[in-house]
Every structure is written in C-alpha cells, then in structure tokens.
C-alpha cells in the first residue's frame, strides 16, 4: 500500500515533466505492481538432545550393577546421613547422583558420584549409627493394621487413639499418629479435602491426590506437618507427623525415613516382601501397590533416571492413533514412544506450543470436552500427569495468571488441565528441567498453560474433531463435579505416558 501511495502521489509531477519534454505520448501508463508473496515462516528448530554426562553415566552403570537390595540400602543410608531426600526405590537418577556427591564432598572424598566399596561400607556405618541413635524401629501397629518406622528415641511416649496409635516426644513438640477407617466410614476425597482445606495461619505446601492414596504437607508459623492416607480393600490407613519447625533440621530426614517404611496394608503383600521389624530399611512392596512411598513418581521420573521408567511427557489420546501434547516436552526427545510403540510427530502448531503425535495400535478412553473460555484466577482445577506405571496422578490446582498453580511431578509437560466439570482448560506448556524439591517432594508451583482456545484452533487445523463449549461436562451436576476423582475419572483412560528412546 505504501508503494502504491508513492506512485499515485508522483503522477502529477511525472505529467508535468513529460509535457515539458514532449514525451507524454511515449510514456507508458502507470501501473501498480503486485506485492511479493509473503515469505514462508520457518519452522522452529528442534534443539539437539543434550549430550550424556560421562560422570553420571559411569556412576549410574556402577550403581545399577549392584543388587537391588544393596541399591535400596545405599539410598536409605543417604537419607539417614542427610544427603538424600528422595524415595528408596533402587533406581538411580539425578537425586541419587547428587546425594552421593554431597556425601563424598562432606567426607572429603572426590565428588565423583560413584561409591567405591570402602565408601559404601563407611556410608552404611554412618547411617547405622544415626538409626541406632534414633532407635528407629520398623514395627507393626496393631491398632491401625499398618507397619511403620518409629524413631523411639525422639518419640518415647506411646498411647492409644481411636483407630490408631500416638507416639510423642517428651516435650510434646513432635507427634506421630497412625489412623485407620473401616471401609465405608469415610473416603479419600473427604480426607484429602479436609487436610488440604485453607485455614487461617496455615499454608499447604504440597498436596497430591491419586486414586489409592493422598499426601498433604503444610506449615504454620511454628510448625510443619506431613499427612498421608492410603486406601485398600480393608479400608483407609494413614499417618500424620507434626513437629515444631525449629526442629526441622533433625525431623525432616525422619519424615522421609518414616514415609519410606510406611506400609498401610502389609496383609496384602507376599510373605517374602513382608517388612522387617528390626531397625533398618524394610523391603518395599511392588511399585504400583498402595504401599508406595511418598512422592512415588519422583525417583523414576527425575532427570537422569533410567529411560524406560521415566515419562518424558504426558499425552492426551484423541482417537485414531493420535496423541496431543506440548511441543516443549519433545524438544529433547527425537524418538518418542507411547505404550511401547514408536510415535512420530505429525504436525506442530505455528507458535510451536502444541504437537500432534501418531502411533499404531493406540486405544484408550475418550478425551474430555474442550473449554474455550479462560479459567478465572483462583478457580479450582486439576492436572492429570502420566506415570511410568499405574493410573495417572491427579493433582489439585488453581488457575493463575496465564497458567496454573499446582504440585506437579516430572513428566507433567503436556498434562491436561481440567476444570471441576471435567472440561479441558488447556495443557501444561512446560515442566522445568531442574525442578525445585523440598524434602523430596515438589511444592506447588506456577506453570504456563496452552489455553483451550489455542488447543481448539490447532485441532481444527489438524482435522481432529473435538467438542468445545462452556456447558456442563457429562456426568457432572450443574457443571461442577463433587470431587477431584469425579472430575478426573472419565478422562483417566485417555492420559498416556510419552517416553524417549535413546
């Protein structure tokens, strides 16, 4: 248009010049040249995956060559020495690597992340001294039916409470309660909502809702608490550990030790896997069972963990072998796999926010209806994150400015965000490569979200039909689900883990 304007404005001057020289008759008629076609927008370059760290790979190979019981024992020992704050699964990931390095630095050794036999022996001796000093005993609790580790030196006072047992410090500053409920007396949703409810002077620092267990941690001006409940055929069993925050340096590691030994339903475990009753680490139940330790998705999902056990991202099945996810989750994943099948990137949106994958033989649940209007700030939401094994995790969330505030686990990039009616509000745009962990768990954090409106546009361009609107989702009343589980249940079968082949 600017070029055309300049041509029009120059016509009077050109006529005058031609009249003066007698050249008007030979002058060609002015014309407007067609604008050049717009340049094609280049596709965003996909960065090459980071090169493996030789030191990490060497340490992992040495660690994984050890028997499983030895690997679990070393992780448990690092918990007791205060150098590791994760779950004792025996899987070697970034937290294990850094924990070993921290131990080596503290003891004056080279921080290679690789423990030589003399170092392993010294680590176990130090941990055993700490366990003995705490008089830590893994014991059955007949009142609740669970098995749990108790630091009896810190908690010498023992008394009965309804449905469980209370262990308490002599000064009352630390309390460990076990609790049980028979089938039908209450529900995990009710216990979770009560534990995570907003209260004056109390801040919930972490909350996680899964189909068979819940975890909530909180802080007040003077104290901290850790709450866990698990559900099984025998009902609901759990424990609460509360303590003065001035004792955090000592008690934080005990919280991890207690959680790593807690087995809510030992009667459901094979006899060979029954927990030990003497001091020391207890054998763990199967990873997918209700006896999983705190933050079970953490160890096998951390950067550097074995590839086959770590979801790189979360995807949403759309039918026809197609899966929707966040494009950022595939930046370091040139060869994605879904359910053991090789997946290919079919297309990306123009902004580089979304990706559509295709794979053979995929079948699953129905994706949720789309919600194209934005969630109001503070609105109650939930996020479904895929896991290596078992059903997806269900994390409570709240809408934040251009995103969502939630306690998510590694692999949550691309995770669907739902409102309490079960409608898709958007996808988690990105999960940090180096998440900030507190006592081995991920605190609530703000994450950017690809909004439902952008998802709807992308699916439309891709020829994928998806319902959209602001009405109630199927199976809800007045557009609002009564519980997290009620909103999540219809969508769980459509959530899949995306892994990376090396």
Structure characterization notes:
With 502 residues, the protein is α+β, with helices and mostly antiparallel strands. It has three domains: 54-132, no CATH class; 135-279, Mog1/PsbP, alpha/beta/alpha sandwich (Protein Transport Mog1p, Chain A); 311-500, Thrombin, subunit H. It has ten helices and 21 strands. The strands form four sheets. A seven-stranded antiparallel sheet has the order 3-4-5-9-8-7-6, sandwiched between helices. A six-stranded antiparallel barrel has the order 10-11-14-13-12-21. A hairpin with a 2-residue loop joins strand 16 and strand 17. Helix 3 (68-80) packs across helix 5. The longest helix is centred in the N-terminal third of the chain and has 20 residues, at 2-21.
Shape: globular
Outline the biggest β-sheet.
7 strands, antiparallel
Count of folded domains: 3
Report Rg. Answer: 29 Å
Structural class: alpha+beta
Compact summary:
With 502 residues, the chain is of the alpha+beta class. Helices cover 23% and strands 26% of the residues.
Q: Which features would summarize this protein structure in a list?
A:
502 residues; 23% helix; 10 helices; Protein Transport Mog1p, Chain A; six-stranded antiparallel β-barrel; 26% strand; 3 domains; single chain; alpha+beta
Indicate the topology.
Blueprint: H1 2-21, H2 54-64, H3 68-80, H4 94-106, H5 117-134, E1 136-140, E2 147-151, E3 157-161, E4 164-168, E5 174-181, H6 188-195, E6 202-209, E7 213-220, E8 223-232, E9 235-244, H7 248-261, H8 297-301, E10 313-319, E11 322-326, E12 336-338, E13 341-348, E14 354-359, E15 380-385, E16 393-400, E17 403-406, E18 416-419, E19 424-428, E20 445-451, H9 452-461, H10 484-488, E21 495-500
Antiparallel strand pairs: 1-2, 3-4, 4-5, 5-9, 6-7, 7-8, 8-9, 10-11, 10-21, 11-14, 12-13, 12-21, 13-14, 15-16, 15-18, 16-17, 17-20, 18-19, 19-20
């Amino acid at each position: 248009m600017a070029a055309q304007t300049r041509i029009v404005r120059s016509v009077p001057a050109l006529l005058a010049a031609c009249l003066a020289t007698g050249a008007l008759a030979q002058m060609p008629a002015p014309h407007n040249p067609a604008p050049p076609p717009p340049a094609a927008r280049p596709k965003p370059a996909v960065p090459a995956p980071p090169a493996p760290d030789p030191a990490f790979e060497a340490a992992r190979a040495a660690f994984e060559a050890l028997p499983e019981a030895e690997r679990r024992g070393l992780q448990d020992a690092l918990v007791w020495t205060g150098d590791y704050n994760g779950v004792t699964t025996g899987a070697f990931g970034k937290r294990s690597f850094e924990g070993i390095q921290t131990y080596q630095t503290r003891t004056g050794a080279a921080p290679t992340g690789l423990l030589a036999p003399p170092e392993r022996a010294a680590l176990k001796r130090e941990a055993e001294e700490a366990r003995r000093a705490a008089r830590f005993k893994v014991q059955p609790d007949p009142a609740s039916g669970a098995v749990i580790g108790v630091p009896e030196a810190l908690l010498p006072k023992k008394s009965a409470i309804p449905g469980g047992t209370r262990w308490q410090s002599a000064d009352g500053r630390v309390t460990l309660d076990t609790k049980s409920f028979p089938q039908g007396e209450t529900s995990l949703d009710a216990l979770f909502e009560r534990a995570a409810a907003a209260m004056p002077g109390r801040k919930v620092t972490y909350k996680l809702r899964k189909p068979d267990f819940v975890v909530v941690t909180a802080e007040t001006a003077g104290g901290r608490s850790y709450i866990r409940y698990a559900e099984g055929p025998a009902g609901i069993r759990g424990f609460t550990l509360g303590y003065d925050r001035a004792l955090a340096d000592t008690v934080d590691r005990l919280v991890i030790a207690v959680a790593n030994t807690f087995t809510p339903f030992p009667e459901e475990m094979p006899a060979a896997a029954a927990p030990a009753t003497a001091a020391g680490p207890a054998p763990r139940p199967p990873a997918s069972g209700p006896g999983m330790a705190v933050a079970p998705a953490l160890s096998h999902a951390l950067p550097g963990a074995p590839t086959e056990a770590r979801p790189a991202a979360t995807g949403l099945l759309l039918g026809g072998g197609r899966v929707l996810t966040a494009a950022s989750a595939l930046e370091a994943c040139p060869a994605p796999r879904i359910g053991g099948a090789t997946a290919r990137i079919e297309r990306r949106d123009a902004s580089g926010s979304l990706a559509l994958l295709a794979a053979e033989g995929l079948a699953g649940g129905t994706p949720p209806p789309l919600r194209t209007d934005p969630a109001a700030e503070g609105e109650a939401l939930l996020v479904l994150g895929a896991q290596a094994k078992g059903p997806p995790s269900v994390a409570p969330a709240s809408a934040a400015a251009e995103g969502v505030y939630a306690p998510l686990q590694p692999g949550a990039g691309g995770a669907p965000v739902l409102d309490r009616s079960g409608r898709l509000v958007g996808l988690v745009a990105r999960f940090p490569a180096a998440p900030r962990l507190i006592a081995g768990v991920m605190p609530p954090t703000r994450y950017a979200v690809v909004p439902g409106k952008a998802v709807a546009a992308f699916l439309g361009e891709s020829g994928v039909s998806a319902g959209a609107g602001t009405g109630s989702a199927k199976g809800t009343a007045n557009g609002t689900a009564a519980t997290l589980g009620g909103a999540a249940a219809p969508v769980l079968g459509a959530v899949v883990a995306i892994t990376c082949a090396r």
